[in-house]
Amino acid sequence: MRPNAEAVALIRRRHPEWREHQLRWRWLLDSLEGGERYRQAIYGSDSRGLPIRNLVRHKREYPDPRDRTLFEGGPLSPGFGQDTLGAATDDDYELRRARTPVPTFVAEAVNTHISRIYAREVKRVGPDSLATWWSDVDGRGTPIDQWMAETVAPLLLTLGQLDLVMDHPAAPPSAEIATQADVQRHGLDRCRASFILPEDMLWWRLDSTGHRYEECLVREWTRTESGPVPRYRHWDDSRSVLYDADANVLEVAEHAFGQVPIARLFDGRKFRCENVGQSRYEGVAERQREYYNRDSELILSDTTQAHPLLQGPEDFVQEDGTIPIGPSWLLPKKKNATGSSVSYEGFDVVEFPKDGAESIRRNKADLREDVDRDSALVRPTGRDAVAQSGLSKAMDHADGNNRLAKVAKMLARAEQEAAELALTVLFDGQPPRTALAAIEIVYPTEFDLFTASDVAGAVADFQAVAAKAGALPRVEGLMLSRLLRLCLPGLSDALYALCDQEIEEFLSRQDRIQRSLPPVDTEPRAQWVFTDKNVL
Asked: Using CA atoms, how far apart are residues 201 and 199, in angstroms rounded to an integer?
């Protein structure tokens, strides 16, 4: 039976924004995962038909066209599941690819920020049905904290976007579902959450608001003995239809949600796109790839320069390009006899220039520092900066706290959307307004980025400034209030208001004390000039 032509056209749909960004999304995910996935990833073909990888191939590293199969697609071109060292001794490019460790800049930055945020308690308030879902969000016993910290947050931060799909669990194959009691007994009224990678959201159509899917096409992967097999699920506001790669219908599932139960979460949005997110770690991923390539250059340089070249008389070179060596590795010298004089041609070791390698090493250090600056992982005290102390450190910590607070607010917003979508599934349609209004998710905005010495220094400097205050109450009040926010970033507005009130009361007391003191005598006094004769 030939598949329906409309079904064939349906599973072949690809959104223009997907076509533009799908390679970038896969590259960002590879940068987060690192390891062999990053080393073996292919992003198309270059002008000579060879794979485009994260490690850039030099012009001199292209194989002879007659022997190309030996390097790409042949036994000397290892892929997934094979050891890359197999071709490392036959090709400089494969040597660099096999021996260069993959940097983990993206994973380090993402995990550092997430660990700081989820080290504090997240406040969650909601209806009982939502609280039950929070205890097991994916049907595998995963609580919401673990699901957000280990799955949603890393993917959302790295990719800049992530699709969450909520649905009821599928009925067991042998179960007979006839009544609502059967539904509840098998747990089919629960909500099960999962995610869809951006590269697998192939096509979509948004509603008039631009925030919801009216319909979409999702690629799903089924694991078989021969490898993963793609399937395609088409969602609309009343059902989902699953197709195989030949557009044959495999499953039709009706739902009563009244909308597509998929929501795209965003970290940021690309301004020129309708439904594409902007990753805040894209710059870190770019530097990771550049660092990876420069590191490979150093590995190849150090490997080849570890064995110096030997330059000697041409007469010793045989026709096959070898040089005869005597017993005990003795290398003879060429004897030149001219008349009565006899001389021997010596052998010289060619020293390699080291300036190029040292330049690469310095550039690697610069890249590592740029990553730290971009991610606010360390204070900006680099090669051109001076050491900081006291309140200047507090200002650097304030910048890091502000960045983490922005990430925390974004994650709270994303979790709010996930909770509302889960309620839609749990209520089989639009949930009551009272249930939506009862949802409260508050992420921390205060993060302990100070060391003990930093805290002690900031407190001492603040107290020193406050002790001398009182002459200019208004100006000093503004300065102390600003200084307080730099030393203690991320506090709530109510707590800042209480601190400002305390500063104002302190300065008022200091002002009254200053006014109660006797005025300072500013009249000119007689000056005594001593001479050797008299006193004037």
From this structure: 6
Percent residues over pLDDT 90 in the chain: 44
Flag whether pLDDT at 391 surpasses 70. Answer: no
For residues 370-396, average pLDDT: 51
Residue 375 is predicted with a pLDDT of 65
pLDDT of 500 over the 70 cut: yes
Instruction: Give the whole-angstrom CA distance, residue 74 versus residue 200.
Output: 30
Residues 6+ apart with CB under 8 A from 79: 40
- Tokens matching residue 254: 């009706």
The rounded distance, in Å, linking the Cα atoms of 461 and 228 is 62
**The CA-based dihedral angle spanning residues 59, 85, 286, 155, taken in that order and rounded to the nearest 10 degrees:** 150
CB contact at 8 A, 243 and 11: yes
Task: For residue 172, give both structure tokens.
Answer: 């067991």
pLDDT at 478: 82
Contacts with 348 (C-beta within 8 Å, 6 or more apart), sequence order? 310, 311, 312
101 has a pLDDT exceeding 50: yes
Residue whose entry in the numeric block shows the structure tokens 């390097």: 71
Across residues 358-368, what is the average pLDDT? 72
Residue 377 CA to residue 383 CA, distance in Å, equals: 16
Lowest mean pLDDT among 10-19, 197-206, 438-447: 438-447
Mean pLDDT of 192-202: 96
Distance CA 95, CA 211 (A): 48
Q: Is 295 buried (19+), middle (13-18) or exposed (0-12) by CB count in 10 A?
A: buried
Classify residue 203 as exposed, middle or buried by CB count within 10 Å of its CB (0-12, 13-18, 19+): buried
Q: Compute CA 212 distance to the chain's CA centroid, rounded to the nearest angstrom.
A: 26
Q: How far is CA 289 from CA 72, 94, 225, 351, 369, in A?
A: 22, 17, 34, 31, 15
Q: Whole-model pTM?
A: 0.76
What is the C-alpha separation between 506 and 508, in angstroms, rounded?
Answer: 5
Quick one: tokens of 134? 């929070």
Write down the pLDDT at residue 441: 95
461, 466, 511, 531 from 470: Cα distances, Å? 17, 8, 5, 44
Q: Which residue has the tokens 């929501």?
A: 263
